[in-house]
Design goal:
Distance between the termini: 40 Å
Order of helices and strands: HHEEHHHHHHHH
Number of strands: 2
Shape: elongated
Oligomer: single chain
Radius of gyration: 20 Å
Strand order of the largest sheet: 1-2
Protein backbone atom coordinates (compact mmCIF):
# COMPACT_ATOMS: atom_id res chain seq x y z
CA UNK A 1 0.00 0.00 0.00
CA UNK A 2 1.91 3.04 -1.24
CA UNK A 3 -0.03 5.55 0.85
CA UNK A 4 0.65 3.82 4.17
CA UNK A 5 4.32 4.76 4.66
CA UNK A 6 3.97 8.58 4.87
CA UNK A 7 1.57 8.29 7.83
CA UNK A 8 4.24 8.17 10.58
CA UNK A 9 5.85 11.30 9.15
CA UNK A 10 2.45 12.99 9.09
CA UNK A 11 1.86 12.09 12.71
CA UNK A 12 5.30 13.38 13.70
CA UNK A 13 4.70 16.64 11.83
CA UNK A 14 1.30 17.02 13.49
CA UNK A 15 2.80 16.37 16.93
CA UNK A 16 5.52 18.94 16.33
CA UNK A 17 2.99 21.56 15.21
CA UNK A 18 0.85 20.82 18.26
CA UNK A 19 3.84 21.07 20.58
CA UNK A 20 5.05 24.30 18.98
CA UNK A 21 1.61 25.89 19.23
CA UNK A 22 1.02 24.92 22.86
CA UNK A 23 4.56 25.87 23.83
CA UNK A 24 4.19 29.26 22.12
CA UNK A 25 0.88 29.82 23.91
CA UNK A 26 2.47 29.07 27.29
CA UNK A 27 5.51 31.27 26.65
CA UNK A 28 3.31 34.12 25.41
CA UNK A 29 1.16 33.74 28.51
CA UNK A 30 3.98 34.65 30.93
CA UNK A 31 5.89 36.95 28.57
CA UNK A 32 2.97 39.34 28.06
CA UNK A 33 3.07 40.05 31.80
CA UNK A 34 6.85 39.74 32.13
CA UNK A 35 6.98 42.70 34.50
CA UNK A 36 5.17 40.51 37.00
CA UNK A 37 6.45 37.06 36.04
CA UNK A 38 10.13 37.88 35.41
CA UNK A 39 11.03 41.34 36.70
CA UNK A 40 9.29 40.97 40.09
CA UNK A 41 11.15 37.75 41.08
CA UNK A 42 14.44 39.35 40.03
CA UNK A 43 13.72 42.32 42.29
CA UNK A 44 12.78 40.04 45.21
CA UNK A 45 16.02 38.09 44.89
CA UNK A 46 18.08 41.29 44.74
CA UNK A 47 16.43 42.50 47.93
CA UNK A 48 17.43 39.25 49.65
CA UNK A 49 20.97 39.67 48.34
CA UNK A 50 21.35 43.29 49.44
CA UNK A 51 19.89 42.78 52.91
CA UNK A 52 21.65 39.53 53.80
CA UNK A 53 24.99 40.50 52.28
CA UNK A 54 24.94 43.86 54.06
CA UNK A 55 24.35 42.19 57.41
CA UNK A 56 26.54 39.09 57.11
CA UNK A 57 29.12 39.58 54.38
CA UNK A 58 31.84 40.82 56.75
CA UNK A 59 31.13 38.16 59.35
CA UNK A 60 30.65 34.94 57.35
CA UNK A 61 32.81 33.11 54.83
CA UNK A 62 31.99 29.74 53.31
CA UNK A 63 34.24 27.00 51.87
CA UNK A 64 37.18 28.74 53.50
CA UNK A 65 37.52 31.80 51.29
CA UNK A 66 34.18 32.43 49.52
CA UNK A 67 32.52 35.69 50.64
CA UNK A 68 28.99 35.26 51.91
CA UNK A 69 27.48 37.50 49.22
CA UNK A 70 29.06 35.37 46.48
CA UNK A 71 27.89 32.19 48.24
CA UNK A 72 24.37 33.56 48.42
CA UNK A 73 23.92 34.41 44.73
CA UNK A 74 23.75 30.84 43.28
CA UNK A 75 21.27 29.83 45.98
CA UNK A 76 19.04 32.80 45.21
CA UNK A 77 19.26 32.13 41.47
CA UNK A 78 18.31 28.48 41.89
CA UNK A 79 15.58 29.20 44.44
CA UNK A 80 13.94 31.70 42.10
CA UNK A 81 14.30 29.41 39.10
CA UNK A 82 12.61 26.55 40.94
CA UNK A 83 9.79 28.61 42.38
CA UNK A 84 8.97 30.29 39.07
CA UNK A 85 9.09 27.04 37.11
CA UNK A 86 6.57 25.56 39.55
CA UNK A 87 4.40 28.67 39.52
CA UNK A 88 4.21 28.83 35.73
CA UNK A 89 3.01 25.31 34.97
CA UNK A 90 0.75 25.02 38.01
CA UNK A 91 -0.95 28.40 37.61
CA UNK A 92 -1.49 27.89 33.89
CA UNK A 93 -3.24 24.57 34.40
CA UNK A 94 -5.42 25.65 37.30
CA UNK A 95 -6.42 28.82 35.47
CA UNK A 96 -7.35 26.83 32.38
CA UNK A 97 -9.38 24.39 34.48
CA UNK A 98 -11.27 27.11 36.34
CA UNK A 99 -12.06 29.16 33.23
CA UNK A 100 -12.93 26.02 31.26
CA UNK A 101 -10.60 26.64 28.32
CA UNK A 102 -8.61 23.50 29.13
CA UNK A 103 -11.17 21.71 26.96
CA UNK A 104 -9.69 23.29 23.83
CA UNK A 105 -6.29 21.81 24.65
CA UNK A 106 -7.76 18.40 25.47
CA UNK A 107 -9.77 18.28 22.26
CA UNK A 108 -6.70 18.88 20.13
CA UNK A 109 -4.95 15.73 18.82
CA UNK A 110 -2.05 16.02 21.26
CA UNK A 111 -0.41 13.09 22.98
CA UNK A 112 0.29 13.10 26.71
CA UNK A 113 3.99 13.51 26.02
CA UNK A 114 3.44 16.56 23.82
CA UNK A 115 1.10 18.10 26.41
CA UNK A 116 3.59 17.52 29.21
CA UNK A 117 6.63 18.67 27.22
CA UNK A 118 5.02 21.97 26.19
CA UNK A 119 3.94 22.92 29.71
CA UNK A 120 7.19 21.76 31.26
CA UNK A 121 9.56 23.45 28.82
CA UNK A 122 7.67 26.75 28.89
CA UNK A 123 7.89 26.73 32.70
CA UNK A 124 11.62 25.97 32.56
CA UNK A 125 12.08 28.85 30.13
CA UNK A 126 10.42 31.27 32.54
CA UNK A 127 12.65 30.03 35.35
CA UNK A 128 15.74 30.44 33.16
CA UNK A 129 14.76 34.02 32.24
CA UNK A 130 14.42 34.85 35.94
CA UNK A 131 17.75 33.15 36.73
CA UNK A 132 19.58 35.06 34.01
CA UNK A 133 18.05 38.33 35.20
CA UNK A 134 19.21 37.74 38.77
CA UNK A 135 22.67 36.73 37.62
CA UNK A 136 23.08 39.84 35.48
CA UNK A 137 21.87 42.16 38.23
CA UNK A 138 23.98 40.44 40.89
CA UNK A 139 27.14 41.05 38.86
CA UNK A 140 26.85 44.75 39.74
CA UNK A 141 27.19 43.88 43.44
CA UNK A 142 29.26 40.68 43.62
CA UNK A 143 32.40 39.51 41.85
CA UNK A 144 31.14 36.15 40.62
CA UNK A 145 32.71 33.57 38.32
CA UNK A 146 31.32 30.24 37.10
CA UNK A 147 33.96 27.59 37.69
CA UNK A 148 32.02 24.65 36.20
CA UNK A 149 29.44 26.05 33.74
CA UNK A 150 28.26 22.64 32.52
CA UNK A 151 27.39 21.58 36.06
CA UNK A 152 25.52 24.83 36.67
CA UNK A 153 23.64 24.44 33.38
CA UNK A 154 22.75 20.79 34.07
CA UNK A 155 21.38 21.44 37.55
CA UNK A 156 19.55 24.57 36.42
CA UNK A 157 17.74 22.76 33.61
CA UNK A 158 17.07 19.55 35.54
CA UNK A 159 15.93 21.42 38.64
CA UNK A 160 13.65 23.64 36.60
CA UNK A 161 12.22 20.60 34.79
CA UNK A 162 11.64 18.84 38.11
CA UNK A 163 9.70 21.75 39.63
CA UNK A 164 7.84 22.41 36.38
CA UNK A 165 6.76 18.75 36.40
CA UNK A 166 5.67 19.04 40.00
CA UNK A 167 3.74 22.15 38.99
CA UNK A 168 1.89 20.15 36.32
CA UNK A 169 0.95 17.56 38.96
CA UNK A 170 -0.23 20.27 41.35
CA UNK A 171 -2.22 21.96 38.59
CA UNK A 172 -3.88 18.68 37.65
CA UNK A 173 -4.76 17.83 41.25
CA UNK A 174 -5.90 21.25 42.48
CA UNK A 175 -9.46 22.37 41.85
CA UNK A 176 -9.12 25.93 43.12
CA UNK A 177 -6.40 28.48 43.74
CA UNK A 178 -6.48 27.89 47.52
CA UNK A 179 -5.33 24.31 47.05
CA UNK A 180 -2.57 25.43 44.73
CA UNK A 181 -1.45 28.07 47.23
CA UNK A 182 -1.16 25.30 49.83
CA UNK A 183 1.43 23.57 47.63
CA UNK A 184 3.39 26.79 47.32
CA UNK A 185 3.18 27.91 50.95
CA UNK A 186 3.46 24.62 52.82
CA UNK A 187 5.69 22.56 50.55
CA UNK A 188 7.67 24.48 47.92
CA UNK A 189 8.56 27.50 50.05
CA UNK A 190 9.68 25.58 53.19
CA UNK A 191 11.69 23.05 51.19
CA UNK A 192 13.54 25.77 49.28
CA UNK A 193 14.20 27.88 52.37
CA UNK A 194 15.54 24.85 54.27
CA UNK A 195 17.71 23.57 51.43
CA UNK A 196 20.86 25.58 52.05
CA UNK A 197 20.03 28.71 50.06
CA UNK A 198 21.22 30.99 52.88
CA UNK A 199 23.70 28.71 54.64
CA UNK A 200 26.00 25.72 54.28
CA UNK A 201 24.58 22.64 55.94
CA UNK A 202 28.00 22.04 57.55
CA UNK A 203 27.09 24.89 59.89
CA UNK A 204 24.19 22.78 61.22
CA UNK A 205 24.27 20.17 64.01
CA UNK A 206 24.81 16.59 62.75
CA UNK A 207 21.14 15.65 63.15
CA UNK A 208 19.94 18.53 60.97
CA UNK A 209 22.62 17.79 58.40
CA UNK A 210 21.07 14.33 57.99
CA UNK A 211 17.59 15.83 57.80
CA UNK A 212 18.78 18.21 55.07
CA UNK A 213 19.91 15.24 52.98
CA UNK A 214 16.29 14.06 52.92
CA UNK A 215 15.33 17.27 51.11
CA UNK A 216 15.65 16.92 47.30
CA UNK A 217 15.82 20.71 46.99
CA UNK A 218 19.14 20.62 48.84
CA UNK A 219 20.72 18.50 46.10
CA UNK A 220 19.48 20.84 43.37
CA UNK A 221 20.84 23.96 45.05
CA UNK A 222 24.06 22.34 46.26
CA UNK A 223 24.80 20.93 42.81
CA UNK A 224 24.05 24.27 41.15
CA UNK A 225 26.36 26.03 43.63
CA UNK A 226 29.10 23.53 42.76
CA UNK A 227 28.95 24.86 39.21
CA UNK A 228 29.94 28.30 40.50
CA UNK A 229 32.65 27.46 43.04
CA UNK A 230 33.77 23.92 42.25
CA UNK A 231 32.97 23.18 45.92
CA UNK A 232 29.83 21.85 47.53
CA UNK A 233 28.47 20.24 50.68
CA UNK A 234 28.06 16.87 48.96
CA UNK A 235 29.21 15.09 45.80
CA UNK A 236 27.78 16.68 42.63
CA UNK A 237 27.40 13.22 41.15
CA UNK A 238 25.21 12.16 44.06
CA UNK A 239 23.19 15.35 43.67
CA UNK A 240 22.80 14.72 39.94
CA UNK A 241 21.63 11.16 40.57
CA UNK A 242 19.03 12.27 43.14
CA UNK A 243 17.70 15.07 40.94
CA UNK A 244 17.62 12.82 37.86
CA UNK A 245 15.79 10.05 39.72
CA UNK A 246 13.19 12.47 41.12
CA UNK A 247 12.63 13.98 37.67
CA UNK A 248 12.11 10.58 36.02
CA UNK A 249 9.73 9.47 38.79
CA UNK A 250 7.63 12.64 38.66
CA UNK A 251 7.59 12.65 34.85
CA UNK A 252 6.30 9.07 34.84
CA UNK A 253 3.61 10.00 37.37
CA UNK A 254 2.61 13.05 35.32
CA UNK A 255 2.28 11.06 32.10
CA UNK A 256 0.18 8.46 33.91
CA UNK A 257 -2.18 11.13 35.26
CA UNK A 258 -2.48 12.72 31.82
CA UNK A 259 -3.13 9.39 30.13
CA UNK A 260 -5.94 8.67 32.57
CA UNK A 261 -7.35 12.18 32.30
CA UNK A 262 -7.25 12.52 36.07
CA UNK A 263 -9.30 15.58 37.09
CA UNK A 264 -9.07 16.88 33.53
CA UNK A 265 -11.72 14.92 31.66
CA UNK A 266 -14.75 15.33 33.88
Amino acid sequence: MPDSEPLPQTFRASAFIGFRTLFYKEVLRFWKVSFQTVAAPVLNALLFLLIFSHVLDRHVTVYGDVPYAAFLVPGLIMMSLLQNAFANSSSSLIQSKITGNIIFVLLAPLSCRVFYAAYMLAAVLRGVFVAIGIWLMAMFFVDLHVAQPLWAFAFGILGGALLATFGVIAGIWAEKFDQLAAFQNFLIMPLTMLSGVFYSIHSLPPLWQKVSHANPFFFMIDGFRYGFFGQSDTSPWLSLAVVGFCLVALAALTLTLLARGYKLRT
